[in-house]
């Protein structure tokens, strides 16, 4: 069962709410998604994630395991991607983040191989 914050993160992403998700980030918060260029700040993150959401019908995160140390989180999950073709592709992923002293994310990284989505 994911922690409250992890559940909030994944609910926003699974709801394809790019703006809501971006509000979890500090002004200089940074996000790296797979091998894409890093995005900095809520506005850039909302635009980048929103563009990605436009390439799929939806997605669902299934948390496998979580680890926490201080303000750092590591979450192992499987992600079901619902493609525009009607197919569903499930891939493993690891998401890591750090929250600053205000409780906002200042570093967020998603390690995932998205190649199966276009296979």
Q: What's the number of extended β-strand segments? A: 6
What's the story with the biggest beta sheet?
A: 6 strands, mixed
The parts where pLDDT drops under 50 for at least 5 residues are: none
Portion of residues within helices: 10-25%
* Distance between the amino and carboxyl termini: 31 Å
Write down the overall mean pLDDT. Answer: 96
Radius of gyration: 14 Å
SSE string:
HHEEHEEEE
What CATH calls the topology is Nuclear Transport Factor 2, Chain: A
Write down the CATH class.
Alpha Beta
SS element count, helices: 3
Strand order of the largest sheet: 2-1-6-5-4-3
User: What is the beta-strand fraction?
Assistant: over 45%
Q: What does the overall shape look like? A: globular
Question: Would you identify the CATH architecture?
Answer: Roll
Structural class assignment: alpha+beta
Overall number of structural domains: 1
In short:
The chain is built from three helices and six strands; from the N terminus they run H-H-E-E-H-E-E-E-E. It is an alpha+beta fold.
Description:
The protein is of the alpha+beta class. 24% of the residues lie in helices and 48% in strands. It has three helices and six strands; from the N terminus they run ααββαββββ. The chain starts with a helix and ends in a 7-residue tail after the last strand. It has a single domain (4-118), classed as Nuclear Transport Factor 2, Chain: A (Roll), CATH 3.10.450.50. It has a six-stranded mixed beta sheet with strand order 2-1-6-5-4-3, with helices on one face. A hairpin with a 5-residue loop joins β1 and β2. It has helices spanning 4-14, 18-22, 42-53, and strands at residues 25-33, 39-40, 56-69, 72-83, 88-99, 105-112. The longest helix has 12 residues, at 42-53. The model has no long low-confidence stretch (mean pLDDT 96).
